[in-house]
Here is the input.
Amino acid sequence: MVCDRLMAIELEQPDAGGLGEIIAALGEWQDDAAPIQLHPGDVGWLWRFGIAATAAAIRTWRRDGTLVAVGELDGHDLMRLAIAPDAQHDATVSRQLAADVSDPKRGVLPEGTVHLEAPPGTHVRDLLLAQGWALDEPWTPLQRDLTSQVEDPRVRIEVVGPEQVHERTAVQRAAFPRSTFTGERWHSMAAGPAYADARCLLAYDEQNVAVAAVTVWSAGPGRPGLLEPMGVHQDHRNHGYGRAVTVAAAAALQQMGSSSAIVCTATANAAGVATYRSAGFRPLAQRLDLRRDGVAS
Here is the structure.
């Protein structure tokens, strides 16, 4: 019976037509009471590179045709993983996931050193650690409850439409020096199905200069919404604009029916953690990525 169940779990790389189902499933798996995991907004943000690149970065696992896990490749060597709530402690699902991410021949992660972001408390993490994977970079997830009214951010906030795209992308590039965000990529992102439940926001200073930006992604009413990404223009830092646009992000998610707002940042990013805390976000238990060193196929 165990062998039959194992064979029933199938690893797939979806085509573009299957991405809508995957985004919907990721939304259904979000839960305030559960650890943060891959969110539909993560796929939505990846969509800026186009539908073909997004599909190429996704891996799915199905049991008897039903999705039980979704992975998203971020770059070449990092995978973010989400597991259906009723499969997170399933031994058969966990064994299959562990086998697939550990063996480069399976086409999930490549040879050499790779990283995996898996939900804390899931059985697959225990298996991978027992198999020699190591604990890696620490991250701090933060969450803001949205059952109470969100305060005024006290700066001008605009929802980005086509006329503000040049400002939105300019702030992104000025906030993240390696960013390649362009107007073309914004329009690609905005055309994706996840952006139907998303907003880009811009914060302006008293001279009407765009100084900070954030994109927020709803997973549906009553579920946690995600901030991905948030950034402040490098020439306008240390003036409270990061806090202001983060408060505005929480308000936007509240208006879309989200139960909470979530974000995750590297623990080493002390300024980022401080900004989110100043905007009413509560740090959750620190989490650690997993690392597999030097495996060759």
Summary: The longest helix spans residues 241-255. The chain has two domains: 2-137+289-295, 144-283. The domain at 144-283 is CATH 3.40.630.30 (Aminopeptidase).
